[in-house]
Please model this.
Amino acid sequence: MQARIPVAVDAGYHVNSNTPSEEYLIPLKVVWTDKGALEGGEVVYPKASMEKYEFTEKPLSVFTGNFEIAANFMVGTRAAAGPGIAAGKLSYQACNRTTCFPPKSVEIAVPYQVD
Amino acid sequence: MFRPSVSVVLFSALALGSFFVGCSSSTRTVRAASIRPASDRKPAPDFALKDADGRTVHLSDYKGKVVLLDFWATWCGPCRMEIPWFIEMQRDKKDRGFEVLGVSMDDNGWEDVKPFLAEMKINYRVVIGNDQTAQIYGGVESLPTTFLIDRDGKIAVVYLGLTSKKDIQDGVEQLLQPASKVALNRVLVPAVSSGPK
Model:
């Protein structure tokens, strides 16, 4: 099954993609800290866009606007019936055309029900 | 037979949007701030931070000089654009009582910063900042944030975000002017009283 994580970036801002075009940039990344009864959790990031900013010579690989990150899970073979939550963190670093903000992490939670 | 049926729903949209909204109010434009009149300037808070050689640097060590205090980080593109300008200014204006002092806000500290100093051939002192340093300078929520500090140790202007090289240079030059020249530019006071005797 697939969980979809919606992300909204305000107009005028961007976050580096999961594969930034410069080594020094901090990528957007989802890391699972507790999958509960789920297994896997492979993260599928959307296609990044290449944007040119005044502060770079080359376009940067970024995410802007609204997008979704997908995570593919399986149910563990020993999973007990009942509810649970897979927990993780989304880390990112955002900028606009003149300013950058410190790296941040937000908690993400994927509630599920095993019948 | 175990036949799990799992529905996965994300609880809530992540907080990225609201985070950015929160930051929007501090977003700067490329139009630079102006140098404040001397009477409106506040003292630049002192600090004690280590440089790359492990020596303690106090801002107060720089009293009597014009200081460009640059809060930056290696992961910050706009900061990296400004740094070559600061290297040039340090080289060209050092003999006139000007110093650049970098405050890196990299979480990994010297591990990330030292290679960068070598790569960029940075010719001015850099220290590693922390939350407390940022706090005493008003939070420093975004980078780059650059303070120009006058010879009396007071903040003359704050540049938020990427600022034009010319604007920064003009600000530095204004602060480097001899005090008498600045006074003449700002206040025309008759040298000799013209009042009745």
